[in-house]
Protein: Pentatricopeptide repeat-containing protein 2, mitochondrial
Organism: Culex pipiens
Amino acid sequence: AQELRFGNYVFGPVVMRALYVLNDPALALKLFKDEKYAGFFDQLTSYQILGDLLFERGHYADVRQVFDLVKSRQVQGGRYPKHSITLTFAACHKENTPEAFQYAMDLWKELNAVGHVPMRKATAYAAALALNQNQPGIALEIVGTVTKGNYVTIRQLKILALLAMDRLEDIVPIFRLVLEIGGPLERKQTFCREVIAKVETAIGATKTELP
C-alpha cells in the first residue's frame, strides 16, 4: 500500500468517498478487507465513510465485521474509537438478532473491562437492543452506567425497562422528580408520548395502588 501514497497525501478517504457517492458498498468492503490495501485505508475517516455506507445500505453485520478489523489493525493507534463504537452499537440495534445482541453485549463487557466509557448514544443503542431482545434487566444495568440520568433518551429507556420488569413503583419517583423540577433557569424535562401511553396502560392493567 505504500506505493499508493503520494508524499504525505492520504488517498484512502478519497477512494471511500468516491465509492460512497457511487453507492458501491460491496467494492468498498472488499478493498477495505484486502490486506494489500490495509495501510492505504489506515485512517478512521476511511472507516467512518465505509461504516456509514454499509449502515445506510442495511449491511449491519458487515459493520460489525469492519469494526473487528479496525480493532485488530489499531487504526490510528486506537482499538476503541468512540464514533466507530457508536456506529457498531447502532448497527447491532438495527439488526436486532440474537447474534447481534450477543456481539453487542460482548463488546459492552470488553469496553468495561478496559475502562472505556462509550458515548451516551452508544449506551442508548445497547440498552434499546437489550429491550428489543426481551432483556430489560440488562437494559436497566446498561443505562445505570450513565452518571447523569436526566438525559431524555436514558430516562425513557429506564422507564421502559422498569415497565418490562413490572416495577411500576420504581417509575413513580422518576416522574415525580421531573415534575418537581422548576425555576426559570431549569431546563424543562420531557417524556415521549409513547412511553407515557405505555405507563398508563400498565397502571390501568394492575390493581396495585402506586404511592
